[in-house]
Design brief:
heterodimer, A: 249 residues, mainly beta, globular, B: 136 residues, alpha+beta, 5-stranded mixed sheet, 3 helices
Chain lengths: 249, 136
């Protein structure tokens, strides 16, 4: 095997209602387990360890812009201290099926600033209330939806009794009249036909820019999963991203 | 980023200074006093791309030439163009519309260097170089 390097130029960063991709130039995430020492006199002269609490943390750097909740300054101020922010990070293009890291986190800090003559920048940090879940993009941000529909099915796998299915929804653009509304679900099926899909996670209906993070306790024996959406309103159009993955409880 | 459009925009903006000509390319011959939009250094992907292009940061070099037929008058004219503000200020003229009519997102006239004698097509001029940072 030989390395095919990944030059990080087109990753996608969705934080609540904002697609931070075009505003950002650095992203870091970390997942760690507390190292607990359980060494005793009977350990034979060696350290013994056991894993403790799991923690997900991260930080994002970028350039400042304000205007609405789809832009960094508005979104960071609105969510500072919020413990339920939905976060999806995609190392590559953000297309459906791409590997995605997702979590629900608290935004812990936001620091805008720069020296004279430099572009006004910011840095922000977050700490997870979920594990950092390694999942997939179930619906890509770049495909506008104007009517009720379903996405491609992906074999994320069954969810055991010690696991959960985690999912994030990012509603990044809303247009239309007569209260355009979207309700997004995550459905499962025994196979890729989705002949009799089961609604597993249903996000609250959205009429404006929003982010949501929900999870479902196992066990679920279905292997196949997809996003589905119901849209109403007059000439509605939505841009939204959905990520999902299986992680430990 | 429309590099030709930015060169043209800088040349047009420079002519907001009364009596100053503007050229959008490195010409073989010039008629001073004149602004010439010159070389460019480009840094791509200053942000993640998001499906199109990341933020591009470019530093355009603008050259300003004045006649040295009269040394003292030429230098005085050049010094006037270098003020940070006022009607004769090149910096103020270029930063009047920081999008240059929409061809870039913003710009900043950062510094002047190379103040001294310059030669174009065998003719010596008083001149200097401007570094203009442009983002788009």
């Amino acid at each position: 095997m030989s390395l095919t390097p990944t030059v990080l130029t087109d990753c996608r960063i969705y934080f609540e209602s904002a697609d931070l991709t075009g505003y950002s130039n650095k992203v870091e995430i970390s997942t760690s387990v507390e190292d607990l020492d359980r060494t005793t006199f009977a350990s034979g002269g060696f350290k013994e360890r056991v894993g403790g609490l799991n923690e997900a943390t991260g930080s994002i750097d970028g350039f400042w812009q304000a205007g609405d909740l789809g832009q960094p300054d508005d979104m960071w101020f609105a969510n500072l201290g919020s413990a339920s922010a939905a976060i999806t990070l995609v190392p590559t293009s953000g297309a459906a099926g791409q590997l995605a890291y997702l979590t629900q986190a608290m935004e812990t800090d936001y620091k805008p600033g720069a020296a004279v003559g430099k572009l006004l920048a910011w840095s922000a940090g977050f700490k997870g209330n979920w594990p950092l879940v390694r999942g997939q993009i179930m619906h890509p941000q770049g495909t506008p939806r104007t009517a009720t529909g379903v996405g491609t099915g992906y074999q994320l796998g069954a969810v055991s009794a010690t696991q959960r299915m985690y999912a994030c929804l990012h509603v990044l653009s809303v247009s239309g009249t007569s209260t355009p509304t979207i309700t997004v679900k995550l459905q499962s099926s025994v196979d890729n036909s989705f002949a009799s899909p089961t609604d597993r996670i249903t996000f609250a209906a959205d009429t404006a820019l929003d982010g949501q993070a929900l999870s479902l306790a196992g066990a679920v024996t279905d292997q196949w999963w997809r996003a589905a959406w119901t849209i109403s309103g007059t000439t509605p159009s939505f841009l939204f991203a959905v990520s999902a993955g299986i992680g430990n409880k | 980023m429309d590099f030709a459009g930015i060169r043209a925009g800088l040349a047009t903006a420079a002519t907001n200074v009364s009596g100053l000509r503007g050229m959008a390319f490195l010409a073989d011959s010039i008629e001073p006093p004149v602004w010439v939009s010159g070389e460019v250094e480009i840094s791509y992907d200053r942000t993640f791309r998001g499906g199109s292009a990341g933020l591009v940061e470019a530093t355009f070099t603008g050259r300003l030439y004045v006649s040295r037929a009269d040394d003292r008058a030429g230098q005085a004219l050049l010094d006037g163009y270098l003020t940070p503000s006022g009607s004769s200020s090149i910096k103020a003229a270029l930063e009047t519309d920081v999008t240059l009519g929409g061809v870039c997102k913003t710009l900043w006239v950062e510094r002047v260097h190379g103040y001294g004698l310059w030669e174009v097509a065998g003719t010596p001029y008083m001149g200097c170089q401007f570094d203009v940072k442009v983002w788009g």
